[in-house]
Amino acid sequence: MEAAAAAPVLDAFFAGPRHHHHQLRPTAAAGGGCRSARLQAQPSRAAAAPYARADWQAACAILASNSSGGNGGSTSSADASNSNSSSKQPAPRVNGQEPPRPPALEATPAPVPAELDLVPVSNLPRPLSISDLSPAPMHGSQLRVAYQGVPGAYSEAAAAKAYPGCDAIPCDQFEVAFQAVELWIADRAVLPVENSLGGSIHRNYDLLLRHRLHIVGEVQLPVHHCLLALPGVRRELLTRVISHPQALAQCELTLNAMGLNVAREAFDDTAGAAEHVAAGGLRDTAAIASARAAELYGLQVLADGIQDDASNVTRFVMLAREPIIPRTDRPFKTSIVFAHDNDGTSILFKVLSAFAFRDISLTKIESRPHRHRPIRLVDDANVGTAKHFEYMFYIDFQASMADVRAQNALAEIQEFTSFLRVLGSYPMDMTPWDAAPSSWSSRVDNSSSQHL
Q1: Nearest CA to 370 among 410, 337, 334?
Q2: Exposed, middle or buried by CB within 10 Å (0-12, 13-18, 19+), for 275?
């Protein structure tokens, strides 16, 4: 009887959305009372009663008590009579809730059921899902973006420009930023690849080939250097200036024009140099960093815009685990890397011809020594053995992979290269640059000319 009463509850449990599939439901076994349940496919129904988990737990307890009280299969009528008269125990109450009873038994007084306290569902650990590892938010909405440096670095500003409102994750090395995306710690990485004054950042080009991340965008950030020191420190009291090597090189002429003939020491990054001055209380040391770094670490700006060239711009690439779908409705750029085993640098002429024939503009050509085969030996009976460097060539061109011209060009290039890989096809950064403030040296020159 209890098993028959539990059937509607079980029906409710298995009666989820019934649209276009058969559902599994328990049915009673043939021949007398039910001691077990089996699943049977039933046609879909239009609607189902709402399902309560407490009812499902009670129904499970009923089935468990019936199964443990019998020997399975069928019983004789005498056994059934004895069971109904004396030895039959009521189903336990699950978490204080009475189990459902058939109408015929509601008026019959029943023994007090045993209490069965189950672990609350809310206290059980929830299984991890893919959303726990890497959610897929809207563009720029709490996106986790890795960058190299500490807060206040130019890479952090580039991450904020690429993904406004993102959760920026600082990394101490470029390699760590790559690994953060590969290990699902971050969703994107924003890393520099070239500067208008300092040239290419070769380390990141090597890492692009070593890792399997895809370029999904680019952002160009004007660099505005400032000379920072502790509050109250005067310029003539400085004995050294620290910053990233490229920042020191980009401000060399300006520092000389300011009369700062002091020691210049390299540091890991610009914002890290500012943090070092603030944390160490170094009153004889200045740092070259951004104005945001001065705000974060409580430093004063001794000189603003000290870069030698006002048009100092760094190009960053945005990296992700999956590529984006190329389009043709807006300007796209595609980055590739290729190499050849035998022809050496003569392969470059064939590649350039493939692009020139299809009127595809190139924006960058970069060569890096082949890591696994840096030297190529050429034996000549007349002149002896010659040693040549083997190179990997990186090329950026202005075309989308959805463009037939780009597809045909790469198909031709693939015929005479031993290695070809598309690093990414992504939208070009078409945002206008902010008006870069004039450099400190140009202001000094202008003020001097006014006195002449």
Answers
A1: 337
A2: buried
In 3-state terms the chain splits into helix, strand, coil percentages (rounded to 5) of 35, 25, 40
- Helices 202-210 and 174-182 cross at an angle (nearest 10°) of 30
From first to last of its 452 residues, the chain has per-residue pLDDT tens of 444 444 444 444 344 444 444 444 444 444 444 443 344 444 444 444 444 555 656 666 665 555 554 444 444 444 444 444 445 566 666 556 666 665 555 555 666 666 655 445 455 555 544 444 444 444 445 799 999 999 999 999 999 999 998 999 999 899 999 999 999 999 999 999 999 888 889 899 999 989 999 999 999 999 999 999 999 999 988 999 999 998 999 999 999 999 888 999 999 889 999 999 999 999 999 999 999 999 999 999 999 999 988 888 999 999 999 999 998 889 999 999 998 876 555 788 889 999 999 999 999 998 888 766 544 444 454 554 445 567 889 999 999 999 999 999 999 999 988 889 999 999 998 887 664 444 444 444 444 333 33
Distance from the first to the final alpha carbon of the chain? 111
- Residue 397 annotated to the active site: no
* CA–CA distance, 154 with 252 (Å, rounded to integer): 19
d(CA 15, CA 8): 10
Residue 239 a catalytic site member: no
State the amino acid at position 124 in one-letter form: L
- Return the residue matching tokens 């009887």: 1
- Given a contact cutoff of 8 angstroms between Cβ atoms, the answer to whether 388 and 430 are in contact is no
C-alpha–C-alpha distance, residues 180 and 1, integer Å: 60
Query: Of 13, 267, 316, 338, which is the active-site residue?
Result: 316
Q: Max alpha carbon distance in the chain (Å)?
A: 125
Q: Which amino acid is at 72?
A: G
Token pair recorded at residue 87: 């030895």
Residue 196 has which token pair?
Answer: 């208008």
344 secondary structure, DSSP code: G
**Angstrom distance (rounded) from CA 428 to CA 219:** 8
What's the CA gap between 251 and 286, in Å, rounded? 13
**Backbone torsions φ then ψ of 188, nearest 5 degrees:** -140, 165
**pTM of the complete model:** 0.64
What are the angstrom distances between the C-alpha of 190 and each of 57, 103, 187, 211, 349? 51, 69, 10, 15, 32
Domains of the chain by start residue, with CATH: 2-121 (no CATH), 141-325 (3.40.190.10), 331-427 (3.30.70.260)
Place of tokens 């690093």: 423
